[in-house]
Amino acid sequence: MTSSTAAAVVTAASPFPGERPVTDAVVREHNLNEVEYGRILELLGRTPTLTELGVFSALWSEHCSYKHSKPVLQTFPTAGPQVVQGPGENAGVLRLPDGWAVAFKIESHNHPSAVEPYQGAATGVGGILRDVFTMGARPVAVLNSLRFGPLDQPRNRYLFAGVVRGVGDYGNCVGIPTLGGEVGFAPGYTGNPLVNAMCVGLLRESDLIRAAAHGVGNVLLCVGARTGRDGIHGASFASEELSERSEARRPQVQVGDPFTEKLLLEASLELITSGLIVAIQDMGAAGLTSSSAEMAARGGVGVEIDTGLVPTREAGMTPYEILLSESQERMLVVAEPYRVEEIQRVCAKWELGAEPIGHVTDDGIFRVRHHGLVVAAIPGQRLVDDCPIYQPAAREGEDARARRTAKPQRPARTDLQGALELLLDSPNLASKRWVYEQYDSTVQASTVLGPGGDAGVLQVPGTAFGLAVTVDCNNRLVALDPYEGGKAAVAEAARNIACTGAVPLGITDCLNFGNPEKPEVFFQFREACRGIADACRAFDTPVTGGNVSFYNESPAGAVDPTPTIGMVGLLARVADRVPSHFSTPGDEILLLGATRGGLGGSAYWTEVFDFIGGSPAPVDLAAERSLQRLLASAAGRGLLRSAHDASEGGLAVALAEAAMGDAYVESGFGAVADLGAYADGVPAEAILYGEDGARVVTSAAPSNVDALVSLAGEHGVPVHRAGRVGERGGALELRLGGRLFTWSIGALRRIYYTAIPRRMRHPDVDRSAGA
Amino acid sequence: MLTVAVVRFPGSNCDVDALRAVERVGVMAQFVWHRDTSLHGADIVILPGGFSYGDYLRSGAIARFSPVMQAVQRHAADGGPVLGICNGFQILCEAHLLPGALLRNAGLAFVSKPVDVVVERTATAFTSVFEPGVRLRLPVAHGDGRFVAAEDTLRMLEAEGRVVLRYVPATEESPLQPNPNGSANHIAGISNATGTVVGLMPHPERVADPLLGVPDGLGFFTSLAAWRPPVSTLSTPNP
Amino acid sequence: MSYRVQVRVMPRGGLLDPQGQAVEHALSALGFPDASAVRVGRAIELEVAAESRREAEARVRQMCDKLLANPVTEDYLLEVGES
Amino acid sequence: MSYRVQVRVMPRGGLLDPQGQAVEHALSALGFPDASAVRVGRAIELEVAAESRREAEARVRQMCDKLLANPVTEDYLLEVGES
Ligand SMILES: Nc1ncnc2c1ncn2[C@@H]1O[C@H](COP(=O)(O)OP(=O)(O)O)[C@@H](O)[C@H]1O
Ligand SMILES: [Mg+2]
């Protein structure tokens, strides 16, 4: 292939012996289009070597370059007095009291999990832990957001079971408690499950370390596991050379080793806090290539690596393979040369190797040698920054608009009584106990509120304050109305945080969408991001980082747009935390917030009417904000015995959940509530099952009710004194419009807590069927 | 002054939790590295939970050969107290400091939840402050917690009253499963004949802080703090 | 007829085998430095009713493909004996 | 000489084998009701340097007794091949 530009050769590099020549076909295999390849030729002034092509293809992939999403992401609010580190690093960092800071980040591992659910999910957790401890933070919580096709299909059960086991085994072994998550099921995820993992870590702000290479002559060290031929662009490469050499199928699956991760975690934190190193970054997607090139670009320096020095698991690996391997549990470290021995001593104590593989240079070139032969030499800053950025067309899909304006067919009989049982039996609303019991939620002995309520809460050891953490997204709302759905995801996360008594601080996001080159998908993306940005501005919760996962498509089309919001909040005094369940007979039940009866996109229509459509209730950001402030203030004064937000399934489900109690109490509580005078002119079904935002079900000791009511008045939040918490094991009685609905709490508990286990009796059967 | 050694194996992850629980009752604690060959004069040893050596092969099988374990063996043989929690219990069984073995949970999945247990034996270094028969709610979090032993070993453990903790049967209403892992005789913890070596599957160190909830685990550590060496203290009584 | 079949399911070559690594390490520390290339997998033993040894083997192969082995990460080997 | 040794470590007969039961259940649900007496254990494969096949076997027996099998709950079986 020849270059049409007559530019001077910028750098020189030779093909590695045996390497294929770079032809048009090879360029296409590397997922680079004409514009992109043209830019490579221009930037090098010559044809790249295969190794260089591999490097470009990795760094200019969607995953590393954000080429379809960058302009949209730049509209997010990222500043605030609490922000220590915004987007652009391995994790965002927010300031906490007393010199503490929190680092957190969310990441997707959707495609690896679709191929191999156990390892895909496990390595997803591994990657996100590294992103956090590489900032100098000790991971103190993980969360996960999962989506699968319906559980009546065996393949979906297999994926669900494998993913949950993978998430659990990895986090459990490393010893990080899982404090929350979410799981949803919808047909659109059948061929393409979503696996998003979030990690939250604590650090002293003074220990923060950024992944920027500095200091010409400083050494690069490869720390941790050996490099194998794992995950070398499984999808984009069908390299003839590789398939000739390999017997059957190439090992593309990355296998996680949580034990090595735990050692790497301890070694890394020791290296960082002892000041032995200049910078550290994990080798995640695109492995050594992206970690070294990005660290160099951030530091405005060049790097030179000798792939011949990288410890490998197999003999005969080429520079191409070593650069692009995604073997897990590896770190790239930059350090002053005289520190190398000390670093190796620390690593050896943790049974890890630390091998010098290169150094920082002053010429700005990303240079790779293999035992002396220069196989790649690319201007480093341009390698990282010059990928073409696209502004795809955006147009709302016809069917989305049609679905939003459609009206449901009312079933022959609307059974308002039975609807609650149906809803609690839906895997979407039922207890996720089957999932979170497989996750250690109490290791580190700091868990104040574990999974099963609203947000999780942990105590910051040695202090009085705590962190509240949650992940949320109602994908149905986003599918029907991406802008309102984006707002709703942030609002729900903030409400979950606020229910515990905490104040929302900031978010990380995992934007799971289909193919951005489809206008209807890009429309969803742009609008959902606009909603997220508006909500974050209204709540003063800046975006500190995140992850974009495009091309989530199954044979049936794109997945539901799923912008998962991971949020952290600060609970000033852990002792003030508010649980989500009723706890004391005789307490008064108060509903905070107004009900207008929005049923668009509701679980009621979906599960009972079998209808996904309608216009979701618009999110009132000001009302949400007032409610958040009220909750924090009421919790701080000890006025609340419980608080639980109404989301999927509306007030009826929220009241039932509060009454049922957690899975480990002997029994739930009865509850009597009168919703009659609550919402004038709203039909009964919409009061019970409507999904307006900004509403919370609370309980309070009778002696605190007056104070709570007047506090709500000060915050402009409507209050409805609905009824009382009853005796253990009683019934849930809801009165409205002269009608009385009664459910036995014991019966509801049986439905709610067994819905998923009943469907997962033989989880591992039929891996292949229905794929 | 009493001191406690918390042994850290590569892969231990409840080591800090155990240390903090010991310090909470005012007892000095220090970490001892698995490569150490001495316990640095500690009076009491804790083998904490976690995944020593990744729990690869069998839980506790590789850790049992760590250099420090010889010192632990000697300490136990001399009548020194040793508490193994979760992975520590598994290591004690692999090292034959306690009988039996801990196998994959009967339900096959990892189980993390609170369980109700009864304290049956209080004549141990770690349960002396409890009333016999008291019920506690403690968290479990394990994949390999099914206690098994040969028939005659089980009989011996029961006859000698060496069952320290037993899972409580469920009630009709409660969905709480009684025995989270299928252990023989619902055994959650056992001791050696003299009550100095104790292994527990539940994690008392995670519920020793009143700020986190009902501190049902605290008694194990106040018992530890009250322990005195049987003979040598006669000459130097503690205040 | 009934056949006793032994199945060995092993991690595919080239894939990381952390268990094998850990065992190799431990063996070496225990005074067996002469052990190498350790890999750890699953051993499954079952009885299968079949007309012939060939049919028994074919049957167990199906079981392996469908359930016993993970086609993405594992290889398997059979041994059929009479029972 | 180097020998390739296959070790099978199986749960001792009489002990509950929940994994084996689960696999048997799953097989039956998948249309293999003809499988029975399923047991699941560990397969370990290793190279060992030794003067003779007998020495190799003796060596691996030691490894099993010391580490690879739990004498309280497991039995093991060896097969030695050339490598
Ligand atoms: N994948 C999961 N991992 C851990 N916890 C989960 C998971 N899915 C759900 N949970 C927990 O179950 C509870 C209910 O979840 P969900 O119905 O999504 O709550 P909400 O509607 O309040 O966000 C929460 O405490 C949540 O953290
Ligand atoms: Mg909630």
Kindly report the greatest chain-chain contact and the residue count on each side.
Answer: A-B, 43 and 38 residues
Number of domains of chain B: 1
**What share of residues of chain B is helical?**
10-25%
Structural class of chain A: alpha+beta
Name the helix and strand elements of chain B from N-terminus to C-terminus, one letter apiece: EHEEHEHEEEEHEEEH
Total beta-strand segments of chain B: 11
Alpha-carbon distance between the two ends of chain B: 10 Å
Broad structural category of chain B: alpha/beta
CATH class of chain B: Alpha Beta
CATH topology of chain B: Rossmann fold
Number of helices of chain B: 5
**Quick one: CATH superfamily of chain B?**
Class I glutamine amidotransferase (GATase) domain
Rg value of chain B: 17 Å
Which sheet architecture does the biggest sheet of chain B show?
Answer: 9 strands, mixed
Query: Can you count the beta strands of chain A?
Result: 28
Ligands bound to this protein structure:
adenosine-5'-diphosphate, magnesium ion
What radius of gyration of chain A results from the CA coordinates?
27 Å
Comma- or semicolon-separated keywords:
heterotetramer, A: 771 residues, alpha+beta, seven-stranded mixed β-sheet, 26 helices, 28 strands, 35% helix, globular, disordered N terminus, B: 239 residues, alpha/beta, Rossmann fold, nine-stranded mixed β-sheet, two-stranded antiparallel sheet, 5 helices, 19% helix, disordered C terminus, binds adenosine-5'-diphosphate, binds magnesium ion
